[in-house]
Amino acid sequence: MLARPFAARVPGFLLWGAMAALSAGCASRPEAPIIESPGGGAAAATTAARLDAVLPADALLLGEEHTAAAHQQIEQQVVALLAARGLLAALALEMADAGVSTAALKPSATELQARQALKWDDKGWPWKAYGPAVMTAVRAGVPVVGANLPRPQMAGSMADRKLDILLSGPALKAQQQRIRIGHCNLLPESQITPMTRIQIAKDITMANMLSQAVLPGKVVVLLTGAGHADRNLGVPQHLPSDVKARAVHLRAGDASENEAADAFDSVWPTPAEPEVDNCAGLRKQFAPAPMPDQH
Description:
globular, 16% strand, single chain, disordered N terminus, 295 residues, two-stranded antiparallel ribbon, Rossmann fold, 8 strands, alpha/beta, 35% helix
């Protein structure tokens, strides 16, 4: 994930009821909560149609913009739809480190228990935004697993030269340029290569977690930033060839001029987000220290 602030907007409220599809010949399947989102049934129907267009798949990568509440609403709807159909193998998260899981929890587990199981960092990833998708999977009896590179492994990744050869030359340069832009062109050039290695290591870790969670006839869903879902640069580059993956870009507003046409299997547009100066915090962080008073 590139350095960006996170929105604290709440994506609706949960209705703890059975989905209609569960009542037809699926009495033994756990119930999944449904989110009530702007647009109501029309919004869910749109998501269902979009989902049907990208299935079947072993792995579905939902590449969001972390500040877009509409994207987290769509993610919850996708999780609920797959759970209702009995197709959800697992929910994998960039928002939690690899090695944590809700697999030991019962469907009746509380949100606190889920957060503890995932060692949730609410400062980095607001639970208000991602809790609905997580709890939808938990209520459906489906494991939620962390998929991100654990922080203690980052230092080693920064020094790992082997990561430099895992992307083609042009793809590596493109990834490095994304690191520059994502950090508002404020990173010292000496940090570009180490930070790119971390990005690649994150993609590898997520790919490994997806591969481990794949189940025949079902779909493992990854919630992550759009950069990680990019077919040319991100997680799909590191998945085994026998894993059928579909990458979706949840895109707020118009397309970026820098986005390759083949970067995603599908683009699900949402309304543009309000303009925010994402670089303000970084400018303060990298601002030169004031000169001492000479008087």
